[in-house]
Amino acid sequence: MALDVRRIRLDFPILDRRVHGKPLVYLDNAATSQKPRQVIDALTAYYIRSNANIHRGIHALAEEATAAYEAVRLQVARFIHAPSERGIVFTRNTTEAINLFAHAWGRSRLKAGDQILLSEMEHHSNLVPWQLLAKATGASLAFVPVTDDGRLELGKLDALLTRRTKLVALTHMSNVLGTINPIQDIVQRAHRVGALALIDAAQSAPHLPLDVQQLGADAVAFSAHKMLGPTGVGVLWAREELLEAMEPFLGGGEMISDVQLTSSTWNEIPWKFEAGTPNIADVIAFGEALAYLGRLGMDQVQAHEQELTLYAYRRLREQPDITLYGPDPHTTPRGGVVSFNLQGLHPHDVGTVLDAEGVAIRAGHHCAKPLMRRLGVAATARASFYIYNTLEEVDRLLEALQAVRSFFSKKTAKVGS
Amino acid sequence: MVMEQLDELYREVILDHFKSPTHHGELPGAQVHVTGSNPLCGDEMTFHLKLDDGRLSAIRFTGKGCAISQAAASMLATQLEGKSVAQAGALIDALKGLMQGREPAAGVDLGDLEALAGVRKFPVRVKCAALSWNVVEQGLKPQRPAHS
């Protein structure tokens, strides 16, 4: 194992929990990760010792809180290899980060005839904001198709990229299939036609080394809560000159330089985009999450999840009544997400019985309904891994799936008799 | 305890309706076709309603879903066929009450649908059961006399 998982598990109090009398097996990490004690402690410590509003106090607590909050901005910049912390804007989540960019960059720039290129594998959070933008500006949407095995059809990319394309907004890693898209190559091709590239890194930032400069992206969005941090914190990184040129998203306190009765001037970036009192406590606790991941090393995190994914994929593929979705992780780069269906059963029924066995997975459309339609299913079951999961837990999933089969076959046998 | 609750959720009559649903399919001559979906799982269900003199003379449903939603649709169609629009409204009200633990009003027979009482213990699954009657209710709305 690439990570010392036994030691890691000691840092996560929730993993000691029992669910319905069974030890919890938490395989819903693509929805949200669990939090280590270090993050929980930082949250409490902030409220016990340092709570104050930031950027405006002249007292010691305000200075401490401001310094701690701004230190995390620098940590985030280093974590994603951004050139400086001036490009880091704190939001509530990935969704708000994408909406911020769509609104502040798109509304004043796009017009009828322009095009935004997305893909068929996007999460609703990287789809609906662009639908709203298209409706408001008259721009149109185009989509990179997805192959049967869940990869982008990149052979069609050059035909889709035209002089009309102003923005390419793509997921780095599919939350349903785990597919890791070749962002660097796509961004280069987007830039060739003069389009910008926004990357939805909600699933990649927590699970692999992320280097926004190497990707060449113009903007990147992700959430703290999927990477050991608290809920309520998201990040938009964008190239500084873009942020400089963009109008504000929300207006109010904090984001101004001067305010007259009928007009105002804006604060510098990134504060121009952080109207109102931000989520100070959770941002500060997010710093502990980043430090935790930094100590493990993101290449080690990815290697650990790769091992779990390959094992789960192989074990599930052996089962004749299980359909797996997404590319073969042996041949295509893929993160720690495995979507599947059990023949004859709806994933919700599977999920309910797995839960009774203490195994937490996600069942549903995973906020990617267009992708579900493309795959020809209404819903899938999804197991997703993180740093604290073990091969034994994959075995527990397999055993629990056996319990699902026997529960429904016993029942239906009685019905038939 | 959870296994008992699972047995309550998946009563045999529910799995029976799931494996061999009645009233599943198209309905030529139906005047009302109404579709709804469960936003949680994306399941879609369409009810086809044939009305004669204010009565639901025939009902069919199409669409795929989980055991709970499919069984609920099958049992609902069985119970509704032949009922007046007003009786259908009363049955749907009773089913909504069932999900909140209320007894049905006097004179309302839930039939097999009573087996859905166990769904209450699984709050996320209530929407699976409720999909069918929400769809039918929507379809019958124009048919119900306006309150005077």
Describe this structure as you would to a colleague.
The complex is a heterodimer of chains A (417) and B (148). Chain A is α/β, with parallel strands linked by helices and 417 residues long. Chain A has two domains: 5-29 and 297-416, Aspartate Aminotransferase, domain 1 (Alpha-Beta Complex), CATH 3.90.1150; 39-294, Type I PLP-dependent aspartate aminotransferase-like (Major domain) (Aspartate Aminotransferase, domain 2, 3-Layer(aba) Sandwich), CATH 3.40.640. In chain A, 40% of the residues lie in helices and 17% in strands. Chain A has a seven-stranded mixed sheet, with helices on both faces. A four-stranded antiparallel sheet of chain A has the order 13-14-17-16, with helices on one face. In chain A, strand 8, helix 8 (212-215) and strand 9 (219-223) form a beta-alpha-beta unit. The model of chain A has no long low-confidence stretch (mean pLDDT 95). By secondary structure, chain B is α+β, with helices and mostly antiparallel strands. Chain B is 43% helix and 16% strand. Chain B has five helices and three strands; from the N terminus they run ααβββααα. Chain B has helices at residues 2-9, 12-19, 67-80, 85-99, 123-140, and strands at 32-37, 44-52, 55-62. The model of chain B has no long low-confidence stretch (mean pLDDT 91). Classes of the chains: A alpha/beta (417), B alpha+beta (148). Chains A and B meet through helix 12 and helix 14 of A and helix 1 and helix 2 of B.
How would you describe this structure in keywords?
heterodimer, A: 417 residues, alpha/beta, Aspartate Aminotransferase, domain 1, Aspartate Aminotransferase, domain 2, 2 domains, seven-stranded mixed β-sheet, four-stranded antiparallel β-sheet, 17 strands, globular, B: 148 residues, alpha+beta, Sufe protein. Chain: A, three-stranded antiparallel β-sheet, 3 strands, 43% helix
Number of DSSP E strands of chain A: 17
The largest sheet of chain B, given as strand count, sense and whether it forms a barrel, is: 3 strands, antiparallel
Q: Give the tally of structural domains of chain A.
A: 2
Task: Note the main sheet of chain A.
Answer: 7 strands, mixed
CATH architecture designation of chain B: Alpha-Beta Complex
- Contiguous low-pLDDT stretches of chain A (5 residues minimum) are none
How much helicity do the residues of chain B have?
A: 40-55%
* Strand ordering within the main sheet of chain A: 4-10-9-8-7-5-6
Interface with most residues: A-B, 24 and 24 residues
Element pattern of chain B in H and E? HHEEEHHH
What is the level 1 CATH name of the largest domain in chain A?
Alpha Beta
Mean pLDDT of chain A: 95
Q: In percent terms, what proportion of residues of chain B is strand?
A: 15-25%
| Overall number of structural domains of chain B | 1
- For the record, what is the CATH homologous superfamily label of the largest domain in chain A? Type I PLP-dependent aspartate aminotransferase-like (Major domain)
Adjacency order of strands in the biggest sheet of chain B: 1-2-3
The helix count of chain B comes to 5
